[in-house]
Amino acid sequence: MRVYTSLSRGLDIWVGVPYSCYMEATATHTTKGSTMQINLTPLEVQFLKTCLNYDTAEDQKDDNFSNGGMDTAIALTGSRHGAAGLIGSLITKDLGYHDAEYDQFELYDKGIDAIFAIINQEEGA
Question: What does pTM read for this prediction?
Fold first, then answer.
């Protein structure tokens, strides 16, 4: 059994779950004419979904209040270390930042576009 963990410095470690159990979501983000592919683990996708308060990317970008914070990350990963790795991985991928004062993970436009691209893929849109 191996479990995939992504560390904040961009290093990847496999611990426990067979490769076939690990599924990565892929989103593309286009800005200023260039397109970037972003790979996210299922845990990262789940956490980013908790950050959303709106049904569309445009509404989320207008008022980017977030429900995702350290408590949510701890609940998903089971530990403070796992939560730090999860948030650190998303910061490394430049999808958002952790606002310690309000304990919220605020998404950048790139992060909003990425999670809505994945949601649209899941819905078959």
Answer: 0.73
